[in-house]
Amino acid sequence: MIIAVDGPAASGKGTIAKALARHYGLPHLDTGLLYRAVALTVRRLDLDPAREADAVAACDFDDALLADPALRSDEIGQLASIVSAHPLVRAALLQRQKRFARQDGGAVLDGRDIGSVIAPDADAKLFVKATPQIRAQRRHKELQAHGSPVSFDKVLADIRARDARDSGRSTAPLVMAPDAALLDTSFLSIEASVQKAVALVDARRAKAAE
Ligand code: CDP
Ligand code: CDP
Hints:
Layout: E1 2-6, H1 13-24, E2 28-30, H2 32-44, H3 52-57, H4 74-83, H5 87-101, E3 107-111, H6 114-118, E4 124-129, H7 132-145, H8 152-168, E5 181-184, H9 190-209
Helix pairs in contact: 1-9, 2-4, 4-8, 7-8
The structure holds cytidine-5'-diphosphate (CDP) (2 copies).
């Protein structure tokens, strides 16, 4: 069973994908981490994120980087959305994600283009959303907990900029796949969001088994 979870920043897709993986006993891949690792490599090697060749060179990162706490910063999130707009960067990371999705027994992946590009044949697709204000509150709280002094207004502005960039790019933009189920977490607790996600996935599977 392949479960695709897409949505904008801080919509709750990672939390939901992780919980679905636990619920169904499937491995989980947070694909945003791959783009964040490219961004962090660009930053550390002092490359130019706007230059496609520079960003492609950074795709050859060491997997140990995927556990680096520096990936979580707001700055790296922004840089990730700049490098991820390059078609050759997306191409460089494509097979790794497809392989993960197609492994025996299935998988849960979360990102922006899982239902549309990485696993268009997924058994269940969720599109997770929440208002920009609520997403900014969530992300701000998280960043504060990690000791970041970034202001709420900056986080909200960054989220809006990232939404625009991720939705506006020509290669694999953030879109809701036509066969995805919409899950608005704006006014749902984490527990309620996960319950709803499980119900939506079960409904898809029941329908497919008919
Ligand atoms: O957790 P959050 O939603 O803030 O970000 P993320 O999922 O770690 O993704 C960081 C950036 O990587 C996004 O803003 C996208 O530009 C890019 N990304 C992408 O293009 N495609 C994906 N499948 C996942 C992330
Ligand atoms: O993966 P994505 O960036 O979409 O979001 P996330 O990392 O799953 O969630 C962002 C933050 O919102 C985390 O701190 C979650 O605990 C929190 N969250 C929440 O407060 N309420 C929800 N219904 C879902 C997530």
